[in-house]
Amino acid sequence: MVPSPVPGGSAATSAVPLSEDRILACLAGYFPQTHPSLLLGRGDDCAVLKAEKPLCVSSDLFLEDIHFRRNYFTPEDTGYKALAVNVSDLAGCGARPLAFTLCLGLPAWVDMDWLNRFFSGMAELAGKHRIALAGGDLSRSTSLHISITVWGEAAEPGSFLARGGSMPGDILFLVGPLGLARAGLALLEEQGREALHHWPAACAAHLRPVPQVDAGLMLSRAGYNARPPALMDLSDGILRDLPRLLGLSGELSATCPEKCTGLGAEIVLPRGRLHPEVLHYAAATGKNPVYEALLGGEDYALLGSCAPDMLPPLHAAIPGLFSIGVVTSGGGIVCNNEPLEKLGGGFDHFDAGQDA
């Protein structure tokens, strides 16, 4: 059952009615009109990006009571995560973030206090990665709708990385937490923001995930003079995302030709690799922590594969990178000698039981 949302720390109505001009003036206080990535910024029919080489682009929706709830997301958390999930897509392509557009559908309860806090959380992450706000749109809505599109450029030297290209014998690796956001979501759903006092890392992993941008850029550079790693961001859990990386889900016809057919994986994931809060949460709820890590979505870690001789320099260059197994030619995926099929299909946005 979906809990009844409450406004995140702001009054239900604004003392002064909102207007498009007021909202845009508020936004301009957090995001400057000019930026090194822009030839023409906000205020015209289109923005113009400085682009001397190919750009990559990605979009995500961030919807109230689907991706977040206001009873435990503050406005700052909402703004931060709405942008973070998009920046993580750029990291999964080994790209450097440049700019984004923001489209907002705002319900009647939104006031200027909420907007200031929302923009401040978003600007915190944008400032860290020097991302320009290039434009967007505003509208009234019956619930809070956030849509963001991001652009990025390839590392120098380097090129964009893709999911396809794994080969038998390649090493599978991760950069970032595994299963932590799943635990945080369950705890926040049960306890609200009280969970932050006892489970700070798990709650932070769900409320404010850290896009692995620097690691993505390092992986892109590492593939410049060698066979590039296969890479993606881990947003739906290993159970669903690893088949995508290996080209087993039917989505990689362009980047994963016939040589991908029949690929599989053998994963070794000891409990000691998992964050202590994942282990504590599993012990407290009688769950298998490895299963929780495999099922968990929204970690926004990086999942990839590389040639075996590339792994030592990647270990040395990228903090937090660790190997989890090997790509096989036999088909099927096993973890700790158990087939993953027994755990089901993993996270699915269209499964009503898996809404945030």
TrEMBL record:
<feature type="binding site">
    <location>
        <position position="137"/>
    </location>
    <ligand>
        <name>Mg(2+) 1</name>
    </ligand>
</feature>
<feature type="binding site">
    <location>
        <position position="60"/>
    </location>
    <ligand>
        <name>Mg(2+) 1</name>
    </ligand>
</feature>
<feature type="binding site">
    <location>
        <position position="89"/>
    </location>
    <ligand>
        <name>Mg(2+) 2</name>
    </ligand>
</feature>
<dbReference type="GO" id="GO:0016301">
    <property type="term" value="F:kinase activity"/>
</dbReference>
<keyword id="KW-0784">Thiamine biosynthesis</keyword>
<feature type="binding site">
    <location>
        <position position="347"/>
    </location>
    <ligand>
        <name>substrate</name>
    </ligand>
</feature>
<keyword id="KW-0547">Nucleotide-binding</keyword>
<feature type="binding site">
    <location>
        <position position="236"/>
    </location>
    <ligand>
        <name>Mg(2+) 5</name>
    </ligand>
</feature>
<feature type="domain" description="PurM-like N-terminal">
    <location>
        <begin position="43"/>
        <end position="153"/>
    </location>
</feature>
<feature type="binding site">
    <location>
        <position position="45"/>
    </location>
    <ligand>
        <name>Mg(2+) 3</name>
    </ligand>
</feature>
<feature type="binding site">
    <location>
        <position position="89"/>
    </location>
    <ligand>
        <name>Mg(2+) 4</name>
    </ligand>
</feature>
<feature type="binding site">
    <location>
        <position position="67"/>
    </location>
    <ligand>
        <name>substrate</name>
    </ligand>
</feature>
<keyword id="KW-0808">Transferase</keyword>
<feature type="binding site">
    <location>
        <position position="45"/>
    </location>
    <ligand>
        <name>Mg(2+) 4</name>
    </ligand>
</feature>
<feature type="binding site">
    <location>
        <position position="233"/>
    </location>
    <ligand>
        <name>Mg(2+) 3</name>
    </ligand>
</feature>
<protein>
    <recommendedName>
        <fullName>Thiamine-monophosphate kinase</fullName>
        <ecNumber>2.7.4.16</ecNumber>
    </recommendedName>
</protein>
<dbReference type="InterPro" id="IPR006283">
    <property type="entry name" value="ThiL-like"/>
</dbReference>
<keyword id="KW-0067">ATP-binding</keyword>
<feature type="binding site">
    <location>
        <position position="60"/>
    </location>
    <ligand>
        <name>Mg(2+) 2</name>
    </ligand>
</feature>
<comment type="function">
    <text>Catalyzes the ATP-dependent phosphorylation of thiamine-monophosphate (TMP) to form thiamine-pyrophosphate (TPP), the active form of vitamin B1.</text>
</comment>
<keyword id="KW-0479">Metal-binding</keyword>
<dbReference type="Pfam" id="PF00586">
    <property type="entry name" value="AIRS"/>
</dbReference>
<dbReference type="InterPro" id="IPR016188">
    <property type="entry name" value="PurM-like_N"/>
</dbReference>
<feature type="binding site">
    <location>
        <position position="163"/>
    </location>
    <ligand>
        <name>ATP</name>
    </ligand>
</feature>
<feature type="binding site">
    <location>
        <position position="298"/>
    </location>
    <ligand>
        <name>substrate</name>
    </ligand>
</feature>
<feature type="binding site">
    <location>
        <begin position="136"/>
        <end position="137"/>
    </location>
    <ligand>
        <name>ATP</name>
    </ligand>
</feature>
<keyword id="KW-0460">Magnesium</keyword>
<dbReference type="InterPro" id="IPR036921">
    <property type="entry name" value="PurM-like_N_sf"/>
</dbReference>
<comment type="similarity">
    <text>Belongs to the thiamine-monophosphate kinase family.</text>
</comment>
<feature type="binding site">
    <location>
        <position position="59"/>
    </location>
    <ligand>
        <name>Mg(2+) 1</name>
    </ligand>
</feature>
<feature type="binding site">
    <location>
        <position position="58"/>
    </location>
    <ligand>
        <name>Mg(2+) 4</name>
    </ligand>
</feature>
<keyword id="KW-0418">Kinase</keyword>
<dbReference type="InterPro" id="IPR036676">
    <property type="entry name" value="PurM-like_C_sf"/>
</dbReference>
<comment type="pathway">
    <text>Cofactor biosynthesis; thiamine diphosphate biosynthesis; thiamine diphosphate from thiamine phosphate: step 1/1.</text>
</comment>
<feature type="binding site">
    <location>
        <position position="235"/>
    </location>
    <ligand>
        <name>ATP</name>
    </ligand>
</feature>
<feature type="binding site">
    <location>
        <position position="89"/>
    </location>
    <ligand>
        <name>Mg(2+) 3</name>
    </ligand>
</feature>
